[in-house]
Amino acid sequence: MKTILFQGDSITDAGRARDNDANRGVGYPHIVSARLGCDAPTEYNFINRGISGNRIVDLYARIKADIINLKPDVMSILIGVNDVWHEIARENGVETPKFEKIYSMLISEIKAALPDIKIIIMEPFVLEGPATAERIDDFRTGVAEKAAVARRIAKRHHLPFLSLQDKLDAACEKAPATHWLVDGVHPTPFGHQLIADEWIKIYKRLRK
């Protein structure tokens, strides 16, 4: 049985239970696990360890307990928006050079501990919405910087990169931003479905 681990912040957390791995929240991890678990019963063990509010430094701090000790076969990481948002809201974000340094350390240490693991790097994203509109230029600039880092990390470590900003931008041509992201950051059910669909596409290529 393969273990698939979803890691990240509140977008991944999505209301998951802390004491029951079967409750993976209401976001894209739930949708992905439902699809894969239906298509291949008993083949997978799904774990969601996203934590609301996490920045890259918070994720790195729990590398042992919430990643290495779980020994996942496949893992995806979606992180970066809080590194920007926390700076805008309370001057407690993570500057881009440090974000890149810690992210690279995270991946290097995971691969050293789990040589056979397959990792999907997911792109952080933002749209204009109730939580972001007042500082949308700062959000867009900051998140774009973190997204560029995520892309570099993926390339440096020869990992698949799941681009999401372009998918959401394209989706906004069909419906308003708030149809996809409640507040400019957190997905609606439709936004989570979009992310899950893209996640599964990457995973199917990775599995070949």
Characterise this structure.
- By secondary structure, the protein is α/β, with parallel strands linked by helices.
- The chain has a single domain, classed as 3-Layer(aba) Sandwich (Rossmann fold), CATH 3.40.50.
- It has helices spanning 10-13, 28-39, 56-61, 63-66, 81-90, 96-113, 136-156, 165-171, 177-180, 189-207; strands at residues 2-8, 44-48, 74-78, 118-122, 161-162.
- Strands 2-1-3-4-5 form a five-stranded parallel β-sheet.
- Helix 7 links the parallel strand 4 (118-122) and strand 5 (161-162).
- Helix 2 (28-39) crosses helix 10, helix 5 packs antiparallel against helix 7 and helix 6 packs parallel to helix 7 (136-156).
- The two termini are 17 Å apart.
> Could you estimate the helical fraction of the residues in percent?
40-55%
What is the domain tally?
1
CATH topology: Rossmann fold
The proportion of strand residues reads: 5-15%
CATH class: Alpha Beta
CATH-scheme architecture: 3-Layer(aba) Sandwich
By DSSP, the count of extended strands is 5
First-to-last CA distance: 17 Å
Main β sheet profile: 5 strands, parallel
| Radius of gyration over C-alpha positions, nearest whole angstrom | 16 Å
Low-confidence stretches: none
Figure out the total of helices.
10
- Large-scale geometry: globular
- SSE ordering: EHHEHHEHHEHEHHH
Mean pLDDT value: 97
